[in-house]
Amino acid sequence: MEGRKILYSAVQPTNNLTIGNYVGAIKNWVNLQNDYDCYFSIANMHAITVRQVPAELRQRTLSVLALYLACGVDPEKCVLYLQSHVSAHAELCWVLNTFTYVGEMERMTQFKDKSARHAENINMGLMDYPVLMAADILLFQTDLVPVGIDQRQHVEIARDIAQRFNNAYSPTFKVPEALYNKVGAKINDLADPAKKMSKSGENPNGAVFMSDDRDTVIRKFKRAVTDSDAEIIYDPERKPGVSNLLSIYSAFGGKSIEAAQADFAGKGYGEFKLAVGEAVADKLAPVQAEWKRLLADKAYLDGVLKAGAENAARAANRTLAKVYKKIGF
Ligand code: ATP
Ligand code: LTN
Q: pTM of the prediction?
């Protein structure tokens, strides 16, 4: 709609999605789609920076799309598409590469982490990941980028690159801002609450997947690491495990942290962990049923992607044409 702010976000189809992806990203999109012009993509070009099995990547891509839809992301309200369907991403990335310094990419924390985890395959794409993400965002003249806090550095670099290009030529890109959750911008690992819950982490018990059945969800929460005193209060510094569980309970139960704390005043950790597990399992059940139904309807999913790609390409190509003109192509 004319005059509305533009919002862009994406998730990579690497592994199964966790409740961290849901709380940090997808859940917010459902609310934001009513007030902004939203573009949501499945970042399969980012996904191949780590080796993927082709058939699995293809299947997971559809699964992520079906999950977006099952969570309530509505293709009538926003543009939902697959990154590789819009060639402007790769094209703008190439141009932006010439406005990005090797040194600043080498210093990115995610690059350093992933290089350590995939020492056998530190490819150029892994290093270039933030530039491709900058291209994603800048192509759509994006105002806001709703992401988890782990993506802060990437949004910052997208801003730097935009400003650099604008200064070198003339205003071309909107300089975007990140948008974080008040609660749940970072859901931590249940087994190691000092670490972010990640869909590609090592310990499968520390991450709750959107596909986990009720028993699995409850078992994982029962085993969640807390601490040795017995107070259920929100204090991320002193009580990272308990605070993480309170954030999850708050996000899944639709309550403030204060209300969540009040629910457990005077209660023990056993009861608390079970209640958090149940809140999550209750919320996941209908999403999972809808997810399964949608996954069986491949014609519908293909149709959503086809329409999305057309709309996204139209918007993206407008920006790309401006860029090409300015640089002398
Ligand atoms: P991977 O482990 O494969 O690197 P990831 O779990 O970090 O992946 P991404 O695809 O990189 O997931 O992220 C998708 C979105 O989910 C991003 O907006 C990211 O900030 C958000 N996100 C991921 N993990 C969490 C988390 N634990 N808490 C809050 N938000 C998260
Ligand atoms: N790198 C992001 C996924 C992503 C993204 C984007 C997020 C790719 N392109 C553009 C926001 C905007 C991640 O969450 N790991």
A: 0.94
